[in-house]
Amino acid sequence: MSKKYKFLDNEKPYFVTFTVVNWIDLFTRNVYKDIFLDAVRYCQQNKDLNVFAWVIMTNHVHMIVGSRGNPLSNIMRDLKRHTSEKLHIALEANKRESRREWMLWLMTRAGSKLGLKFQLWQPESHPMELFSPFIANQKLRYLHQNPVKAGFVSNEIDWKYSSAGDYHGRKGLLEIMLI
């Protein structure tokens, strides 16, 4: 089994990506982004999660994370499971969501391919250990530039659902530890 995408050293920070199955643009609505952020806050307060940087895009999330004790693989597993359940419930309940049936159908279909009833996230989060300051800063820049490269904003600090502002003296939506 490959060691390339595993949490091997719980003491190090990792760059992770959570991608919605079929690259569905789930996070175009703030309600869904807020559900994800609430779950991250819970993990910060109750599961030893350290967040160094983050960005929510329309169909994926990038984070630089670490742990104060609990195995990072367990924290990430729990975060993905919880957000999948909560977002599934929110999607089913949101009768005003114009893409609701289509998204639920795609997620149900993705789950059936894995022997599950429902699959919101792609199975892998591809953790990449940030073993040097150079690599950490490279991933930090990449993460914060995502909304700029997507054309959503012209300056990274203008993307509300990101830690870019924290790195420029502004208070963001999550508590973070600067790299």
TrEMBL record:
What are the BP-aspect GO terms? DNA transposition
Could you tell me which InterPro entries the record lists for this protein?
RAYT_transposase, Transposase_17
The segment(s) forming the Transposase IS200-like domain are 10-146
Range of residues in the leader sequence? none
Superkingdom per UniProt: Bacteria
Gene Ontology molecular function terms on file: sequence-specific DNA binding; transposase activity
In terms of SMART domains, this protein maps to:
Y1_Tnp
Q: What is this protein called?
A: Transposase
Species for this entry = Pinibacter aurantiacus
